[in-house]
Amino acid sequence: MTCNHLFQPIQIGGTTLPNRVMMGSMHVGLEGIDEDGEALIAFYRERAGTDGPSLIVTGGIAVSPEGEGGGHFHGFYREKDCRFMQRMNDEIHRAGGRMAAQLFHAGRYAHAFAGKGTVAPSAIQSPITRFPPRALTSGEIEALIEKYAASAAKAKEVGFDAIEIMGSEGYLINQFLSPVTNQRDDEWGGDFERRTRFPLAIIKAIRREVGKDCPVIFRLSGADLVPDSTTEDETLRFARMVQEAGVDLINVGIGWHESRVPTISMMVPRAGFAPIARKIKEAVEIPVVGSNRINDPLLADRLIEQGDCDMVSMARPFLADPDLLRKARREEYDRINTCIACNQACLDHIFEGKPASCLVNPRAGREWKWPLSATDNRKTVVVIGGGAAGMEAARSQAEIGNRVILYEKSDRLGGQLNLATRIPGKEEFNETLRFYRHELDRLEVDIRFNHTPSAAEIMEDKPDLVVISTGVRPRVPSIPGVDLPHVMSYPEALREPERIGKQVAIIGAGGIGCDLAHFLTEQGDHQVVLMRRKGKMGENLGKTTRWALISHLYQQGVRFLNNLRYEKIEKDGVLITLFGEEGAEQKKIPADTVILAAGQESVLFDQERLKQAGIPVVTVGGAREAGELDAKRAIYDGARLAYSTTTV
Ligand code: NAP
Ligand code: SF4
After folding, report:
1. Where are the beta strands (DSSP E) in 63-161?
2. Is 77 considered catalytic here?
3. Which helix (H) or strand (E) holds 253?
4. 487-598 shares the fold of 10-336
């Protein structure tokens, strides 16, 4: 299996790129988190190289202050930021990489900073922002076009190798194109031609500034996925207009931030939007980039081979594995740490105002404080428990050069991740399991299955460090009747679905309760009632994925009950007291099967003898703290020990 098509050079304007992969734009929130910008430079440096992506597109860089997409945005109008960009480009060029500056204006999606206000083609508020924008005047629109041009000139001056104009995802340029957001009746709106005037004027002004050889990329919305927005026919016409205006490469974006259709989550099949890129490719002569849920180099190669696109944009996959392309080049596909499209540590972090990282690669975004360096003092590390935290502890300790022994009480690695793979749409966790199995083998970790060692046995291994990662067990709530035969724990339900009856009551509506309900809706015609005492369904789930899962569960007829007390589990249902505005009411929720998804408790390991013997012991993952445990925290906990200088 080779990626022959991926490693073919391609001509983009006056530049030949050595391969067909670009690292797509991501706002990683590392701007301004340290004094000298090393955080962002280290992040790009680790991914750049003559054997890395042929182009790295920056996160959006604002062309005007009111267009910034959040705090700590870089802007071409700030001298300090331009000096930083020059230094960053010098460093990335030294590492053998190429950088494209993404010229950005958020329009009505911008954060309204005090005194700045948001602007848009028309004063129409987006459903996902808190403030209405102000409609730009005609004079302001003309001034803004010149700001794009000036920003492009500045980008060239500070060493960028290419320009990408952000024209999709519902940002300002996209807002001008769409009849939903552009309801002007002057020369900048009204009919389709006039709605295209702003983007086309920007392209021409940029081309005028940067000359004919500098590659100009246009990120074009292949499908807005917003009712009544730009039609497919208009999109294809616009793609041709963009080409005629002087763009060298069209990068196809999908969906707006406010779309109610998942565009990049696990629920989207791999390369699910490639047919849209293909339609655009068929409409124009310039090369076209496909994006969204392309997380596998072999798949990317196939898309190019079959003519869906000329290049691929992979963004999150480079968070998950900076060496993705290097490994593909060496045909070491099993070594790739695959992006599982969970959004939990990348997009969800950004929406929470935190720097982006990656669930499967917690070093992402932390390269500057967690440098990869081999230990000069090889230690023996014993890890107890081979779930997510334990596998990562073992892998990262072995990666820095320590000898690692990993004890696992069952006959397989993965712990709770094995359960996650059974949830519809979460099959990508199989890639994470494949990665760990392969890496632990490659790094010669001594894995001892089917055994929990005693303290005496561990001491025989002469460890310098013991990592306890014994994980969690499901909590059994103290509800009368919990030991009846039709009551199952969530691991039992996922492993033995054939035992589950038609009417199902789930106790607990956190992430696992919701996942279980999803699992059951795909299993057959179960009638599912999801319950919790207080709070919302799937309350702790990430902002970018929760809405899609919850609306899917409602569509599938899952009933949700809260504000209740569990009284008793009986053989035909669960007796509860419901607290409503009218007072308390007792109710029986009929159920053939009751499933407990009421959180977890830590599985403890007696460390006393090890401590008495003076052996350092660290507890990680669910064994340290069961509440709020998810794969992100477990893997982070396992990795922190090896890379962070502040721990053992
Ligand atoms: P969780 O989200 O903390 O939810 C636990 C549920 O159990 C709550 O609904 C809680 O509801 C209920 N509960 C707790 N103690 C109870 C008791 N004594 N009696 C009855 N009910 C009780 O935990 P989880 O669902 O086990 O998930 C574990 C972690 O994995 C969470 O951090 C979760 O976010 C994460 N996870 C994430 C995903 C994802 O897709 N991102 C998927 C699955 C899990 P009340 O206390 O209101 O009754
Ligand atoms: Fe991919 Fe999840 Fe990592 Fe984001 S956090 S890059 S979606 S694996």
Report:
1. 99-104, 119-120, 134-135
2. no
3. strand 249-254
4. no
CATH number of 487-598: 3.50.50.60
CA of 254 to the centre of ligand 1 (A): 33
3-state helix, strand, coil in the chain (%, to 5): 35, 20, 45
How far, in Å, CA of 545 to CA of 126, rounded?
19
Kindly report, residue by residue over 54-111, the tens digit of the pLDDT: 999 999 999 999 999 887 889 999 999 999 999 999 999 999 999 999 999 999 999 7
Question: What's the pLDDT band for 115 if we cut at 50, 70, 90?
Answer: very low
User: Tokens 């945005």 map to which residue?
Assistant: 73
Structure tokens at 576: 């509860």
CB 440 within 8 A of CB 395: yes
Q: What superfamily in CATH does domain 380-474+601-643 come from?
A: NAD(P)-binding Rossmann-like Domain (3.40.50.720)
Closest CA to 258 of 120, 108, 133, 121: 108
Q: Which CATH class is domain 10-336?
A: alpha beta
- Do 37 and 27 meet the contact criterion of CB atoms below 8 Å apart? no
Q: Give the start-to-end residue ranges of the domains of the chain.
A: 10-336, 380-474+601-643, 487-598
Tell me the pLDDT tens digit for each residue of 404-419: 999 999 999 999 999 9
Ligand 1: nearest atom to the Cα of 599:
26
Please write the tens of the pLDDT for every residue from 212-242.
999 999 999 999 999 999 999 999 999 999 9
Q: How far, in Å, CA of 243 to CA of 236, rounded?
A: 11
State whether residue 564 is helix, strand or coil: strand
Cβ distance 179 to 229 under 8 Å? yes
What contacts 241, CB < 8 A, 6 or more positions away?
196, 200
Q: Would you say the pTM of this structure is higher than 0.85?
A: yes
Q: Return the sign of the alpha-carbon dihedral for residues 542, 545, 547, 553.
A: negative
Report the distance separating Cα 426 and Cα 419, nearest Å: 10
What pLDDT digit, counting tens, does each position of 252-270 carry?
999 999 998 888 888 888 9
Q: Which one of 349, 512, 537 would you pick to mutate in the ligand 1 pocket, going by the greatest count of ligand atoms within 8 A of its CB?
A: 512
- Cβ atoms of 470 and 385 within 8 Å: the answer is yes
Measured between alpha carbons, how far is 168 from 256 in angstroms, rounded to an integer?
7
What length does the chain have? 648
Answer whether 9's CB lies under 8 Å from 18's CB.
Answer: yes
Instruction: Check pLDDT > 90 for residue 32.
Output: no
**For residue 322, which of 511, 139, 56, 613 has the smallest C-alpha distance?**
56
Instruction: Give, for ligand 2, the residue of 268, 270, 339 to mutate: max count of ligand atoms closer than 8 Å to Cβ.
Output: 339
Residue 448, beta-bridge partner list: 407
Phi, psi of 465 (to 5 degrees): -155, 135
Distance CA 16, CA 320 (A): 27
